[in-house]
Design goal:
By secondary structure, the chain is mainly α. Helix content is about 70%, strand content about 5%. The protein contains six helices and two strands. Helix 2 packs antiparallel against helix 4 and helix 4 runs antiparallel to helix 5.
């Protein structure tokens, strides 16, 4: 098992803001029956996973929500990698949803969108990150690329 310093920190408020934007925009996409909004959200998620400093929803939190006092920081010891993995996985699911919607497999496409909404909601409202859980299970199995174990 890896020795890790507990000084690694994650702002849960930034994560929750990210989840709230994902949920809200995907519900709007569904109500408008607009695959382009799904594609936009998925692209934002994938870009933020690949280049964390370009994570648009977290930038909105950092530049406007937090400085305005609308959302207070909630910084805790945690690893950022499982959260990025979860976001990337969600982005891939949304890419599959867009492809399904373009291929007129609308039930499957919107089911994938709603799966993403539900999982983001679990994270936002209950604090359970399914992607983080999967990341840590892969860590326990010593799968390469999943080096971080939970901070205790």
């Amino acid at each position: 098992m890896n020795e890790q310093k507990s000084t690694r920190m994650v702002d849960r408020s930034a994560l929750r803001a990210n989840q709230a934007f994902i949920i809200a925009l995907l519900i709007v996409a569904f109500l408008l029956d607009d695959w382009l909004v799904v594609a936009l959200v998925g692209s934002i998620m994938l870009l933020g996973t690949a280049i964390p400093r370009l994570s648009l929803f977290k930038e909105v939190y950092s530049r406007w929500l937090k400085p305005s006092g609308m959302v207070m920081p909630d910084v805790i010891p945690d690893n950022p990698e499982p959260h990025r993995f979860a976001q990337g996985f969600g982005g891939i699911v949304l890419a599959m949803a867009v492809l399904s919607l373009l291929l007129e497999q609308t039930v499957f496409g919107w089911t994938l969108v709603w799966l993403t909404v539900v999982l983001a909601g679990l994270n936002l409202f209950l604090g359970f990150c399914a992607g983080c859980f999967l990341y840590y299970q892969l860590n326990r199995l010593n799968v390469p690329g999943f080096e971080r174990s939970p901070i205790r």
